[in-house]
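Intended use. Records like the one below are meant for learning the mapping from a protein sequence to its folded structure. Do not use them to infer anything beyond what is encoded.
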Amino acid sequence: MRRNFLVPWAIVALLMVGAWTSRGLASPLTQPTSPPSGPLLPPVATELIGQIGGATYALDSSGPYVYLGVGPRVLVLDVTDPAAPQQVGQSAALPTVVQDVQLSGSLLIVALGEAGVQVLDVSTPAAPTLAGRLDTSGDIRRLALAPGRIYATDSTGSLQIIGLTDADHLTWLGAYPGQARQVAAVGTMVYLLRGTSMLLLDAANPANPVLMGAYQSTAYLEAVTVINGLAYLAAGADGMEIVSVTDPAAPAQIGHLLTPGASKGIAVDGAFAYLAADQDGLQVVDIQDAAAPTLAGSYAYAAIGSALRVSSGHAFVAGKDQNLVIVDVSQPAAPVRESSFDLPAAVRRTRVDGTRAYLADADDGLWIMDITDPANPAPLGLYRTPESPLNVTLDGSLAYVAVGDSGLQILDVTDPGQPTLLGSYDTIGYAFDVAISNTLAYVADGPRLSVINVSQPATPTLVTVLGLRDARSVDIVGDLMYVADFRSPRGLRIFSLANPAAPLLLATYPYDGAAGEARVRDGVAYIAQTVGLETATVISPTAPARLASMPLPGNSYSLALAQSWAFVACGSGGLQIVDVSDPAQPLVAGLFAAPGSARGVDVQNDLAYVAADTGGLIVVRITPLVQASPWFFPFMRR
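Structure written out for the chain above:
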């Protein structure tokens, strides 16, 4: 079930014909009683032109290279000098976020979730190229390789067996039904993790794998590797278990070690096993006596990932707040961090200003990116906020960041390479969004709205607090403020700022869904809520009225307005481009199926910058099909 990145314009056009002739996506309140009086905008085509960053769930290594899944790409890093890893190449953007990678000679097998499996030729590390693919019916998460075989766990509930004899033409060989979480393989023997069980399968006949035996643990089994007749299991809070599998019909535990933290990943190299223990870092275990493993050392790291490889005295670990962390484990009793490689990992919101994009990254803080060349965004600087930033507003050389429980932070971004903290104010609630008007910052602060004097950025002071239900977004137009309130009774609160220090509630516009973000332009409020896009007239601020309520796929988190379009970030529904030339009759004119989850969007000229969460930052060119033939679009004839 591949989700294509690009939606060819002809397909978009065909999809739009029905919508444009029937307006079928609108609610009964928006159905026209007569033909629209104004000109209809043509549908739009979307084209991916740039991407950077994303979450890292997978890596593999060989010789001087580490192959790292970062969002929807595979990056190739040269780690000849582990203290200074260098990116030397990357794949083209793949259909979805990379879930796992396994190296087989000069071939890299890539698990791509619902896009199945792809094979990259990495014989030229600077230019990985697609060799073959197989789009399975499920959602591929983890891989294990054996000669001529790919064993892939499918989150829909089975183990998929794929032939790798011809990398250009992958073939489906068979499956084993039931839940499949993690997998290891040695020849035709497959070790499949299923909850607290490890199943031992003989897949000599891939069309009919045979269950040979099962090992039952008391812990939830997270990962497995099998070497010399022993299965080493990462057993969550129970640490590590060592199981003899020499007799597949009677697997038996021979060793166990309770380690700090919850073990999520495992690698074995020589006399040591290495456990990725989530919040407790990297644990090094001496396994020379498999019956009595002992903790040799540890590297404390607060947000370590579960994917790791160990080679030549170095552990390569996918970190949760770094894409890659390299740890020197040549002295097992005293592991030392050597270096890291980091890009934006979990981008939730973005603001664009000229040649810079400001990214609110849930894992890192506020990234500043150079978008002089939108096809190749590049990091300029990073400010690590105390908690996950939720939104950012720009005002000249200042960035105002809403940082959840930490409130409002004010950064000087004059030098984008070294953003610095000027001042902060720890609000009472949970800061979701911020708007600036003159010398006041209005912070959507969870159950309330806080007004803060920022005339002296180094010493912001509280002016007043408005009691609301759960303020999530704030927008200011002229002397009016619009606040999206999340909890029931939900609504868009409209305030007068005639006295800016004492906002006066004028009216509340109710809606059914839960608002993510509301923006106002030309007397119309556009509200991205869980169920889609809502438009309301606010020309009379004391009497707002609904114009339209349009359902959209996914979960509508945020929006941006440009010309006659509303760009709505709809999570798993991607970027939805809505024609709002008549806000009473909105219609979908284009879409872009972003990898990850579209959580935020900003628009500059003909480019949409999409904060795609685990997919990183996505740059999409928007092209109205102005040359479309009126005979192809009969409803466009004048």
